[in-house]
Amino acid sequence: MRREPGSKNDRSDEHRINNQINAPKVRLISEDSEAVVIDLEEALQMAKKKELDLVEISPNQDPPIVRIIDYSKFKYNQLKKAKEAKKKQKVIQLKEIKMRPSIDPNDFNHKVKHAIEFLNDGDKVKFTLMFRGREMVHPDLGFDVMRRVKETLGESVTIEKEPSQEGRNITMIVSCKKESKKKQTGGQYA
Questions:
Q1: Nearest 5 degrees, angle CA 125-CA 181-CA 161?
Q2: For the chain: N or C, fewer Cβ within 10 A?
């Protein structure tokens, strides 16, 4: 299972193995976790005898720390750990809710209810209020709707972007406060 430098699996961001290690002395960690400082050539001979690879675990130490292990199995376990760590990460998404200045009260309540669900899931919510035709004459109606949204959501949210007009739209971005996430009971804000 020995690999030589320059093989197709040789990448600079990976650990140095076998002949790629360039220190005269190394600190070899044995199976029973004891560290012994020996010559590099002696460590390479031990790895060759066991038909395994000499892998540089910590190159920044003096002397560098190495282990005799099966490199392909080592890389597999590292990839597995990285995938597990990635699974546990929560990706925050930006959900958009579109409204109109003349929104019906039931529609307004329904959209705010969906916004609360998104916030409970840890996502951010972007409220977009769209004007059509002559509705642009009354931007104050749009800002009133955004004010109602803020009042309905209450203190449980953080306004990341205050309502602002951009062309024919008014937008506002909200996210859940960190304390509110802890106080959640039954999927609703406390």
A1: 30
A2: C
pLDDT per residue over 113-164, tens digit each? 999 888 888 889 999 999 988 888 888 888 999 999 888 888 888 888 899 9
Paired with 164 in beta bridges are 171
Query: What is the DSSP secondary structure assignment for residue 17, as one 8-state letter?
Result: B
Are the C-beta atoms of residues 115 and 138 closer than 8 Å to each other? no
C-alpha dihedral over 72, 76, 81, 84, to 10 degrees? 170
Where would I find the beta strands (DSSP E) of the chain?
A: 25-29, 35-39, 53-58, 65-69, 94-99, 124-130, 157-166, 169-176
Class of domain 94-182: alpha beta
CATH number of 18-80: 3.10.20.80
What residue segments make up the domains of the chain, in order of their start?
18-80, 94-182
DSSP for 89-123? PPPP-EEEEEE-TT--HHHHHHHHHHHHHHHHTT-
Q: Would you say the pTM of this structure is higher than 0.70?
A: no
Q: What is the rounded distance in angstroms from the CA atom of residue 181 to the CA atom of residue 37? A: 51
